[in-house]
Amino acid sequence: MIELPRTVEILVLFLLGPSWPMALMLPLIVGILACTLFFKRSFYRRSIVLVSVLALLFGESLLLIVFGLRKIELIKSSLASLRQFLPLPFALNLALAAVGVLAAIGAAVYVEFGRSRLPLAQLFPEVQFTEAPVQLVERVNRLAAVARISPPGVSLIDSGIPSAFITRSRRGFEIAVSVGLVESLDREELDACIAHELAHLKNKDFVLRFFATMAKVGLFARPLSYIIEPAVYRAREHLADFTAVKLIGGPAALISALSKIHESQIESLASSSIATACLFGSVRKSRITSLFNKQPKLEDRISALQEL
Amino acid sequence: MRLQVLHPSNRDLRFALGDLEATVLRQLWETDRSLSVREFQGRISKNHPVAVTTVATILDRLHTKGIVSRELVKEGGPRYVYSARFSEDQFKDYVVRNVMGTLLRGFNDITVAYLAEKMTDRPQDRKVLSKYLDRLKQKAKG
């Protein structure tokens, strides 16, 4: 067995958590390296690899439970040789995996049958919604037809801060656009923002995010999953930008919309000490916190679009 | 009305508001009607280039602070029209009362002594002071 310096070993174990078959570590590390090195601008492949890594880890948890419960002799013998790599005793590993898988099942049931069946106002109690005007609904329907998806419901957010989001609620998928966004962007820019939200639907991001989040819940004992899951979200966010560009036929409108929103976030931060929470993601985050951020920085989105 | 942040080193409106907040609010006082976000931006960007999104964000904040009121117009694309809830004088009056009230609550004796001392410096202030003193004497009699 390779002799690792103790500090490196502890660091690796901290990042990977109580991993049982050490063979899993290699594809994990390769996958994550591939994401950072090779798929720098291919956000589709990047998200797929990251989700696969999560699935692999989650699958390992399941294996651990199945084999652990059957008390196969193999585990005991292989464990003996791997004992030096395991930060936690086998029983604790098994318990953590079992709790994680149960929690993931619970969370899945909650999201599927609880949360996503609530009306929008209950999902976001801090946001005021009003009925969207016909023109806005028609605009969303037209863009949904271009994207060849069934049109989501449309709501207007009663707020002057430019923002938009799409979510699942009792009425199915629902896109919410703030008054501030509609009144301060021109027609093409608004289309670009709506197209971005619709792109999440077209790219099946809700399914992917669902699995990523469930895996993260299941792998709560593995610190690595807290970095992988937001990375999946960020990659899908970039991907939605690219899909939106295809839908509206060019990056110019989306770049200008994002730049304007970026400017308003910076200006309003500079003008007052009260930070504005914005659904487009926030500005001025350090490198460490942006690792856990589900929204990529607006600058990053703009520069990725400019490279097209 | 809520004033959360004071900037003691700034003069005028910017004492109580951010630079852009003050600029935006001034537009409302310079006209006697309500304005849409785009109208605000048109007026401001003559001197100071600013994105409509920024103006929309600033106005939303002024609304949250209770300094302006707004109405949602849905015809012809949803938008807000903003109007002032206070005149310039009312606003300044509120700021002074707010600040002095805080000082009086926190440092009563020092604040009163300082005011009395300052107000004997300038002739026009002395006039105001004596007027209030007369009123005080009458109140004591009655």
Describe this structure in words.
- The complex is a heterodimer of chains A (308) and B (142).
- Chain A has helices spanning 6-16, 25-37, 43-70, 73-82, 90-114, 120-123, 134-147, 179-184, 187-202, 205-218, 223-248, 252-271, 287-291, 298-306; strands spanning 129-131, 153-157, 164-169, 172-178.
- Chain A is an alpha+beta fold and 308 residues long.
- Chain A has 2 domains: 6-116, no CATH class; 119-208 and 238-306, Metalloproteases ("zincins"), catalytic domain (Zincin-like, 2-Layer Sandwich).
- A 4-stranded mixed β-sheet of chain A has the order 1-2-4-3.
- In chain A, a hairpin with a 2-residue loop joins strand 3 and strand 4 (172-178).
- Chain A is globular, with a radius of gyration of 22 Å.
- In chain B, a hairpin with a 5-residue loop joins strand 2 (68-73) and strand 3.
- Chain B contains 6 helices and 3 strands.
- Chain B has a 3-stranded antiparallel β-sheet with strand order 1-3-2.
- Chain B has helices spanning 19-30, 37-44, 52-64, 88-106, 108-119, 123-141, and strands at 35-36, 68-73, 79-84.
- With 142 residues, chain B is mainly α.
- The interface between A and B is medium-sized, with 29 and 31 residues.
